[in-house]
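Notebook entry, structure prediction.
Reason for the run: the old model in the group folder had no record of what sequence produced it. Starting over properly, with the input documented here first.
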Amino acid sequence: MKRLTETKNNEFAPSWSPDGKTIAYSGLKRLITSSETNMEDTHVWTLEVATGARCALGAAIDNRQGRPQWSPDGQALYFTVQSKGSVGLYRLPTAGGTAERIGPALEARGTVGAFTIGKDGLVVAAISSPAGPAELYTRRPGGDGALKALTSLNKDLLGAKKVAETEAFTFRSFDGRGIEAFVTKPPALNRAAATRAADELTFQPRHPTRCRKSVNRASDRMLSNTGSALSSMRSGFRSWYACSSHVNARSVSREAA
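New structure, fully documented this time:
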């Protein structure tokens, strides 16, 4: 067995190119800490086996990238990218250049899970969204570039349900850093639902009483005026975040850009 890399970083998820000359993999640049982890996002790299030359192919995309898959002709790599509440599928030429977002659209906030590339370049991906569980979608090379639904397994189930709307918003933390968050607005607001949502917020606050009061005030405003519900929740979360040192909300997802 021959060692191919001599770094103090992490390299994982290797994949051979179709011609057997290059390995694509996920990698980091920062050193591993005593906790065997770091805060760096993984990027896509390539390694020429004959020369040992490495290339941070995905460095131009400053977001977390999933494990790469080769195109059938070896001229491009496909991988997922996390950004602004979505996980999109991208295609990046191995020779360099601009990455192409295969889908879903950034504003759709969809999430690509598993995906595969056929011999003819056909892309098949499982994509979920805030509106429903994952379904299969396809995109053919040389077409109009649109993703086409292949399955609708949850159509009957979701047709009888009213799915809550999820909206993104940003707020400033105590140090001025912009924080992106998401709020799911219940289809019908009531006191019991608002109380349960407040009870599901767990934290280790510097000022527990003030934090709880700020959330309760936001809940009261939600109940008294549904038209200003989002504004009230934003205000509550700003106050709550500023006095909390740790946040864990099961009903709210937050991703820092």
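Summary: Confidence is low (pLDDT under 50) at residues 202-208, 222-229, 237-257.
The old model has been moved to the deprecated folder.
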